[in-house]
Amino acid sequence: MESKETAVERGSGNVFADLGFPDADAHLVKAELVSRIDDIVRDRGLTQTEVGRLMGLSQPDVSRLLRGDFREYSLERLFRLLTTLGRDIDIVVRQPRSAAGGKLRIAEPA
């Protein structure tokens, strides 16, 4: 059996940038926020219907959101959903960490 070499390309850390999405940083932040929402839902053992009732969404909308269909959601709306689930949101504006310029990111909780 012949072995074939597989080319491997290292990603940038942002799959949305790697795929050429416009506003890739914002897409990555949204994905991280939705991941946090999903973590809360799982930790609390809530159904999508219960989550929808809490957040003012229909169950199908919750399902789409948690499956990654969040394009229609603004960052502000995702922030509101997280605060509805009892989370604080801190926004920090500071000098960039590198010469490459500013970036959006979600920090891990302390």
What gross morphology would you assign? globular
Number of helices: 5
Largest sheet: none
Mean pLDDT: 89
Count of extended strands: 0
The share of residues in helices is 40-55%
Radius of gyration: 17 Å
- Quote the distance from N terminus to C terminus: 51 Å
How would you sum up this structure in a few lines?
The protein has 110 residues and is mostly helical. 46% of the residues lie in helices and 0% in strands.
Q: Any overview of this molecule?
A:
Helix content is 46%, strand content 0%. The protein is mostly helical.
Secondary structure topology:
Blueprint: H1 15-18, H2 24-44, H3 48-55, H4 59-66, H5 75-84
Helix pairs in contact: 2-5, 3-4
Could you name the key traits of this structure?
globular; 110 residues; mainly alpha
